[in-house]
Records
---
Amino acid sequence: MTNELKGKVNYSVNGNIAILEVDNPPVNPLSSGVRAGLSEYIAKANNDESIEGIILTGAGRSFIAGADISEFGQKPDGPDLHTALKEIEFSKKPVLAAINGTALGGGLETALVCNYRMGTNKAIVGLPEVNLGLLPGAGGTQRLPRLIGPSQALKMMIAGTPMSAKKALQQGVIDAISENSLIDDAIAFLHEKIGLNLIEHPKVRDKNEKVLEARGDDNVLSEAKALAAKTRRGQFAPGQIIACVEAAINEDDFDVGMKKESEYFLECLVNPQREAMIHIFFGERAASKISDIPKETPLLPINSAGIVGSGTMGGGIAMNFANAGIPVLVLDQDEKNLERGMGVIEKNYQMMVDRGRMTQEQKDMVLGLITPTLSYEDLSDVDIAVEAVYENLELKQEIFKSLDAVTKDHAILASNTSGLDIDAIASSTKRPGKVVGTHFFSPANVMRLLEVVRGKDSSDETMATVMSIGKRMGKAAVVSLNAPGFIGNRMLAGYTYQANMLLLEGALPNQVDSALESFGMSMGPFRMMDLVGLDLGWRARKLANIETPLANKISDALCEQDRFGQKTSKGFYNYSEGSRAPNPAPENEAIYKEISSQNNIERREISDQEIIDRCILALVNEGARILEEGVAQRSGDMDIVYINGYGFPIWRGGPMFYANQLGLSEVINKMSAFSKLDENFWKPAPLLQKLADNSGAFGEAPAPEERAQLLSFNKANMGGV
Ligand SMILES: NC(=O)c1ccc[n+]([C@@H]2O[C@H](COP(=O)([O-])OP(=O)(O)OC[C@H]3O[C@@H](n4cnc5c(N)ncnc54)[C@H](O)[C@@H]3O)[C@@H](O)[C@H]2O)c1
């Protein structure tokens, strides 16, 4: 019997059990109607003598999605969230949350006010608020520690990653998993509990044993602080979450903890980091869309893949396909390299097993999807081939010719080139529409960024398909037009150029790195250059017989002394055997001084602020040109690139968002102060100037007819090779 009475909750009765079904498509947020419905039906069930238990569940694939963001900032209609949840928590009849799908954030917090929780085996639970710069503000920080212990609760809230039903059961977040019909099992579960004649069914808020155990144990909080420092450096919300859990541990009165949670939540809400992180959250979704390609563009089926080249990148790319469940052949021309590449793949997976990130069975399964081969003929059936051989245009063209000949007509041919012209590669095939760049970042199995490079002939289907593969792999995929350096490396050129110039003008590598790391970059530019290897540019310049540009004079001089970076244990820094930790290299200082003086540069004290401004605004100005040319579709795409591929702090929202926050006229002011150092470099991009003049902000790329000419990029200015 179903009585649809009000709003967005359905009420039905099965024997002595009332069933409240939240029905608010598509994901069941706790909108005003839902809150009112819950409130009314909890009262109704409580007032109905024939009812002995209540099931709370969701319609569709979601249990409850949490607060309704469209109501943010408005005065709530009907009961507010806390009131509605309290009514469930203080129901006289036991309430069971029957978690039919995802219960994230407020969804799980709603389940936590119920007496019992049961999930289907597909249920997903989690408190991901931290990813938006927030904390679980509907009692999650007070109830979860009581349910599963403060240590586990902190790990779950600081990571913010969703958890499978199986894991949730192991951890005690849920009490049972339903293998058959969720509602039937939930009714049976409640009948059993009702049969026990309990005077009171347990409430999570009353379960104090675990928090009391942690009282006086400093390790719980200090371990959480260490975890936050390591995984969420510079972020505000994790510290607030820890403070909430501290209250859960130390406050005798549950409601005092709740009050603190509300205060700390508000502090997160007004912190600028929240806006930055929400920008990134939506920015990643926006980046996955290609503005001029219709949504309904059919995707080409991708059921098998081939990788050409089993080196650093090829192996990692193969792992991405296997992890997404796509069988993949790995081809190399060199048997030894192939063997070594397969060995590295196996070792990487083993490391994940050792660290508990994967089971042995999972490892066997994914490894089983990767097959080595020395023969192109074996690639005849693949739906996509990704080339990852040495960075050489003729070689790549040769390989694309072979792939074109051997693969089926519909197969996509992708290149992992870091910067070669995709159109030139495509021209060696008879299917330029099926050719695209897939620029993975190293290590490819770890880094989330994937630049998808759109050639002039890449078809809509090809682009849409590759973007969807990126999604299947869990990558942050961003489209770039085929222009030098694509998005990320093109912006990076100006950033490292400024770092190198600062070194010539008087700063030391350690100072530059520390300033930028305190800004939030995961690794300063000199540590990064040491990691990549200073010899790459040096060799390339020698090979091409190019005179060393001013900005590279110091790194080339270091190479002349065999200081190539980490690979030779010395570069800008010194490294002890087998360690990646940089130690200052005072012996380099004489070289710095000598080169500065040879070039008539008077070394001076440079402030940390100048270092930050020059390096970060170099990213911004080049980003403006990239946007103006339409190489990136929108400024948010560049933010996604920088956060996922270059260690830019997520809580600053990416370089372009940072510039918008700073105000573009302030960006121009700062740049014009630097123009006396280098007038040419600090010339504002026309789009930046125009937006600043109109109090505008970076957003979408201009319409095609208003775009600046593509490839206005001048490598010589930027200190490139
Ligand atoms: N290493 C990085 O950090 C990185 C990052 C992004 C993009 N890339 C790009 O990825 C590509 C591969 O770089 P890598 O670092 O993996 O190179 P690598 O030197 O580690 O591996 C290249 C592999 O290609 C194989 N190979 C060479 N010619 C071949 C042929 N004709 N047929 C089959 N196999 C052949 C080699 O035997 C070797 O195993 C390059 O275009 C590079 O610019 C590299």
---
Amino acid sequence: MRSIKKPIVIVGAGFGGMTVASNLKRLNPALPILVVDSEAQFIFKPLMYEVLSEELPIWEAAPEYSNIFSNLGITFLKNCLTKIRFDENILEFSDDLKLGYEYLVLCTGSLSNTFSVKGVYENCYFFNNLNDLNNLRSVLQKIQNNNIKKKLFIIGAGPSGVEIACKVNDIYKNNFDISIVERSNEILSKNKIFNREEAEKALLSRKINLFLNSTVKEISDQKISILNNSEIRDFDQDIIIWTAGVKPNLPFIEGNVSQSNGRILVNEKFQIDNFTNSFAIGDIAIIKGMEDLPLTAQVAIQEGNHLAKNIELLSQEKDLLPFEFQDNGEMISLGIGEASISALGVTLSGKLAFEARRLIYASKMPVISKSLKSTASWVFQKKSILNKFINKTP
Ligand SMILES: Cc1cc2nc3c(=O)[nH]c(=O)nc-3n(C[C@H](O)[C@H](O)[C@H](O)COP(=O)(O)OP(=O)(O)OC[C@H]3O[C@@H](n4cnc5c(N)ncnc54)[C@H](O)[C@@H]3O)c2cc1C
């Protein structure tokens, strides 16, 4: 066994970082692990819609890191990484702290991407982190108290856009006239056909307007300009939620690190070129030869599991193993109490899918909360079909 003098530092405690840290601790409790995150709370992003609709209290989807890591026996530091000096194995933080590392795991996730469209940053709400969720929740509550129906535009018909549209419709009933604007010719273009069809039905039944083949050109505080069929039209707007895409969160990378589409290029063992004691996983990484992997929690968790095994092999001076992704399917929420699942050859929609989705996420929560646990056990007793999902899940 190789002796490790400096810590294994994991920066970013989202799905990727949390998985590496907890698995590494389990595989080898003697390894010195330090986890750093700029936030005080983990956010279980797939459950942000349920927090928005108040189906789930915020504290259940966003547990404190200090609790999670003290339960795991892992040291946690709240700090923001500002620079990496790869040649010297040194990290710099926003409070001027400098930290050396033996191995580095980078998993700082994504930021919303405005694609430089004029007015987006100033006039839109986003839905990518806890702050975004709190801001959106309070503005929706504030403006719905006025009796006039408000014009809500959601930009992007990927999972986030569709899921928010259905939830907002169900929570606020007749308070919003909701439109989704999508550049391509269909919703959920990268998702499973079953989920796309279920989502189409969900949008139709809620009378949510769809602008397909439509591109947002500019947004001001009261208008949105949309290009469709070579024609630009202006519409009045009261609130706009931007879910049109994300970009990697890498403000601290300087110098000679290979990148592809702005993401860190790694080999199939997650090593960064020229710096083989440094690894990147999750939304910020792109694996050579596996460029099509989606930016999902499922991918980040599988990568985190695999990387933990590889770091343990390294500590024993053994060869690292290449990563292989297994597609376990996908789930989307479609309004209050409804969802759609397409996984492992099984499809499920409606209320049963909603309960199954909660059960599956309960099994993935870092600290499984009491109410999620009780939902899980209730569903588990009543619906034996869920056994199919529980071990191999999205
Ligand atoms: C609303 C929403 C719903 C989603 N639903 C699903 C779903 O149903 N299924 C699915 O598979 N995927 C879903 N995703 C995508 C999924 O959440 C991401 O792909 C996944 O979180 C990526 O994991 P990660 O570890 O790369 O990054 P993250 O989980 O985003 O974690 C990044 C962490 O890095 C920290 N960090 C960032 N910068 C710094 C810094 N400079 N210093 C220190 N710490 C830093 C952040 O605070 C954060 O905790 C959803 C995403 C969103 C936004």
